[in-house]
Amino acid sequence: MKPSNKTNKPFRINPVEFLIFAFFAAVFTNSLYNLFYDHQGNPVGDKLTLTAPAAPAAEVAGAYSLELKCDATNERATDSSKLRITGMLCTNTGSVDSRSPASKEDLKVSTISVSNENNHFNATVFTDFGGSKYSTDYIPLSSGKNVLKVVYTLESGKTINQSLTVTKN
Q1: Of 12, 41, 88, 98, whose CB has the highest number of CB atoms within 10 Å?
Q2: Which tens digits make up the pLDDT trace of 42-51?
Q3: E strand map for the chain
Q4: What is the domain partition of the chain in residue ranges?
Q5: Predicted pLDDT of residue 107
Q6: How does 127-165 read in b/e, with b if 16+ C-beta sit within 10 Å?
Q7: Which class is 63-168 in CATH?
């Protein structure tokens, strides 16, 4: 038997194994950190307070906001190319032709739709049933008269129509 030149060192470290171990240790430490802290360094259990901006967001250039009343005379003129409608939920209360702002007791609206009859654009309607009001996205206007149709669909299936004429100069 030939003696071996190899010496047995009890704590010899292989550099490749050490780099692999260091990589996985770093990944584990990062995962553990992200488990307890968010990306801004705040502990996850802390309560964050979010506040709304003090002023409403800036209007879109060339857009016109219109508050639609529940009366029958709804004719407007504008130079804007877009229109946003906000208003109260309207319904027939009392006589057939009278319109007034709706309350929770006399109105159960399931959907509201707003469309521009001239260019067949259907607006997206954002409804606040608790506050009995709604708002639309920006509706493109064609040159000349634009007939906008607002349809309130009640839970009973009955529909109530309201028209608005907007003339784009």
Answers
A1: 88
A2: 665 555 454 4
A3: 63-68, 75-78, 82-88, 90-92, 99-101, 109-116, 121-123, 125-128, 133-136, 139-140, 144-154, 159-168
A4: 14-45, 63-168
A5: 56
A6: beeeebbbbbebbebeeeebebebebeeeeeeebebebe
A7: mainly beta
